[in-house]
Write a structure and sequence with these properties.
homodimer, alpha/beta, Stationary-phase Survival Protein Sure Homolog, Chain: A, nine-stranded mixed beta sheet, 7 helices, about 25% strand, metal-binding (chains A, B), nucleotide-binding (chains A, B)
Chain lengths: ~260, ~260
């Protein structure tokens, strides 16, 4: 008998044991069959990196009741690749979800985020994909208020899909109540003062990558940072075609 | 006395010792002062990943004559961040270059590429940035035919800059002669059959990430793969604003 329920593949960049991914599974497990394949440990800032050199291992885990959970030693993108190739060869996921990330993935974090790496990888495989992130960096923050929003967005995307080459970057303000949803564009912002030099006890310099975020478009309505700053859930539709179409004519005049 | 020469920061993802980066330095060192800050070892497939957890170290190297060369223990993007913060605090680069990568970065490789990570990072810091890649995967391939193209593009960008939020992804066919330059859009393509399962002598399974590239728009003129397949140098202007503007109206009708 054919299985009529949709299959949702879930990954993240905080690791298979993170509270955020457990919460995401809890929110959607009545809507579909769920398979989790997530990094063995935290992989923040891994972007769309994959393991070109290192081998991967997959291990079944049993930390979410009857949900099938695998940990993978690689990056968030590796988790999608290996899940599709090794775990979903017989049954392609209807939807790929990522998160719930513990931390903000709006603005230029879209590029650095391993959470978004998962959604972009799904999108590059033409599978509708949504990343969820909360601006609470505290892993113990109460994510329960996200439930109706996550369920609504997942329900909509299960039913209607997404345009080819488009995935969703959904960010929630660090709040316990939201004013509604805004569909946004990515904010131009910058990370500055990004490294801190330290002196090792053995007498050499080393560096930590840290940084301060600067909004380069403060107060500009329509940006994802504006939505978050004003208490809205921000949906930033994100495309995998990164061609700068507006720059093409000028360049053609120079080079063709 | 103020230094009137431009400063070019160069990085890559193959490591500071790779033939491609040495060649790039050789091509441009008469056009500007050059500072190299590149990964200590190969970092293929690192995308825009940065080191959120691991510390970095910087070491001066002396493998390119009188060019200042530093190796960094981190990712390609880390190299840009630490160079701007620690090495270029007094003198901001006029231009950031990446490459010459040993391997094709057209199509969806744009997302996975550490070479493109360098250019995107520069672009997110509002510095004109260009990534160069050759479709020769062989490190010993003769890159000399790229010289006039690289010098022309670098000269143009030094003079005219690039639009805000736009960097260039320049790919060269695996050939010793080129038919000219085409300004292209990113090809939709897919990596398939991406993992290979192996059995470890100790009795467990492990996996390598490999894959075959499938062009999903074969023969479509105007795509970067088409240009490369037909002997042209492909310039794919790439933007850091990944908002899917065309999808916004439809989503606003659902969610706002």
């Amino acid at each position: 008998m054919e299985n009529k329920r949709p299959l949702i593949l879930i990954s993240n960049d905080d690791g298979y044991h993170a509270p955020g991914i457990r919460k995401l599974v809890e929110f959607v497990k009545d809507m579909a069959d769920v398979l989790v394949c997530a990094p063995e440990a935290a992989r923040s800032g891994y972007s769309c990196a994959f393991s070109a050199v290192d081998y991967l291992r997959l291990k079944p885990r049993h930390n979410m009741g009857d949900t099938m959970v695998y940990s993978c030693t690689g990056t968030p993108v590796d988790c999608v690749k290996i899940a599709l190739d090794q775990l979903c060869a017989e049954r392609r996921p209807t939807l790929i979800l990522s998160g719930i990330n513990h931390g903000d993935n709006s603005s230029v974090n879209n590029h650095y985020s391993g959470t978004m790496g998962v959604a972009k990888e799904g999108c590059m495989k033409y599978i509708p994909s949504v990343a969820f992130s909360s601006c609470y960096y505290d892993e113990n923050a109460n994510l329960e208020p996200l439930r109706p929003y996550v369920q609504r967005i997942v329900g909509d995307v299960l039913q209607k899909g997404l345009p080819k080459g488009v995935c969703l970057n959904v960010n929630f303000p660090a709040a316990q109540k939201f004013k509604g949803i805004k569909v946004c564009r990515m904010t131009f912002g910058s990370w500055i003062e990004e490294t801190v030099k330290e002196r090792h006890p053995r007498g050499y310099d080393y560096y930590w990558v840290v940084g301060k975020y600067r909004n380069d478009e403060p107060g500009v309505e329509g940006t994802d940072q504006w939505a978050l700053d004003n208490g809205y859930v921000a949906i930033t539709p994100t495309q995998t075609d990164v061609t700068a179409y507006d720059a093409m004519d000028g360049l053609k005049q120079i080079y063709e």
